[in-house]
């Protein structure tokens, strides 16, 4: 029997469709469900009201991340709303029989760091979470995307989700990345190229030599920000690096099960001749380190560039919105990116809070000190296990000696839902993924960069081209 060539997305989709209605609406089987404290309370409330159990509790993993303070956790949580959400997650997971990593558990961390780390995230799976950055898990060749709270309830109750199939897009990044240019720069450049709506209605598969050359951490960074490019999900075909990463993870299959899983995983790639509705190509060799200047992840430029002049934009609506962004950011057209002075530096998040990110940042700040104008520079490991690993390698000492704060794992200053926030007007070099108005705190100003660029900015007090770093 011959089958039409299929994309990786087509294959995973086909393997999970339970039923498709005439209008194309499908019921999709969900293999893995991650939950956190922010988007799960009403879902459990709904189950309780309807008197429903969780259909397959072992397929859900819960972790607390958004609201937890990143300082001493033995003290009571001072924010009543956070405390209530955290208490609710503990109670709900206990009542419904779901495994939960609380704020004192070594395995606790940002949900998108924890899933892969535990081997909960595996190739070919459908993975959902009430969180937009679930796209991160696509780095393993899993179809992974964010869902809303009512869908969280649906998945808890049925282990299925109602979906319409998205279109296929392939983004090929050819060539070799220059030194100092990272996965973060690739994805920022892609979003700069296609815009934040560029991926709307698509699942994006990343391919090409530069993507294949990335570590699993780097691939996660790329897939993480698929959502900022508007896509439903991001995907990278699994390969030997993927399999090596998974091996021996606590929840990953072992022995014979692993062997048969592996045989399946090896079929997970887009067939030669498979149809993509849109193709985008980028040359890695021409990419510089990227810095965002505005209040949208598409507002990016090279570190060697200047703040652009919105008057050069033809479309009036866009022109007005970019002027507004510059006003919010307190920047003037023509300002050199390397002249932008900073107040704070944040290294962490589900985009760049993994061990390699911390290694890259530590290599930059080793034997150096943060600049006098930097009021706070912090490193927040993506999970307790990342923190342990970093400490075993002595990275914490490097950061602390340079003047950084070394914190407990969580979302931290990626978003203003916990005590780590920018004050109005403060400017931050951040390794996170969103630079919307108020994202890191009311009137806070965010510049998105790679971990090495953030670390160098902390030392210099302003942005510097990491390619010139000594
Ligand atoms: C709080 C949560 C629902 C949210 C998301 O969906 O992404 C957060 O993680 C974010 O990054 O903005
Ligand atoms: S680290 Fe940031 S982007 Fe990631 S889940 Fe937490 S808040 Fe969302």
Automatic annotation (TrEMBL):
It is an enzyme of class 4 (lyase). It comes from the Bacteria. HAMAP family: LeuC_type1. One of its GO terms (molecular function) is metal ion binding. Catalyzes the isomerization between 2-isopropylmalate and 3-isopropylmalate, via the formation of 2-isopropylmaleate. Keywords: 4Fe-4S, Amino-acid biosynthesis, Branched-chain amino acid biosynthesis, Iron, Iron-sulfur, Leucine biosynthesis, Lyase, Metal-binding. Its EC number is 4.2.1.33. Heterodimer of LeuC and LeuD. The keyword Amino-acid biosynthesis applies. The keyword Iron applies. Residues 10-461 form the Aconitase/3-isopropylmalate dehydratase large subunit alpha/beta/alpha domain. This is 3-isopropylmalate dehydratase large subunit. Its cofactor is [4Fe-4S] cluster. Gene3D superfamilies: Aconitase, domain 3. PROSITE patterns: ACONITASE_1, ACONITASE_2. It comes from Hartmannibacter diazotrophicus. It catalyses: (2R,3S)-3-isopropylmalate = (2S)-2-isopropylmalate. [4Fe-4S] cluster binds at residues 350, 411, 414. One of its GO terms (biological process) is L-leucine biosynthetic process. Binds 1 [4Fe-4S] cluster per subunit. The gene is leuC. Belongs to the aconitase/IPM isomerase family. LeuC type 1 subfamily.
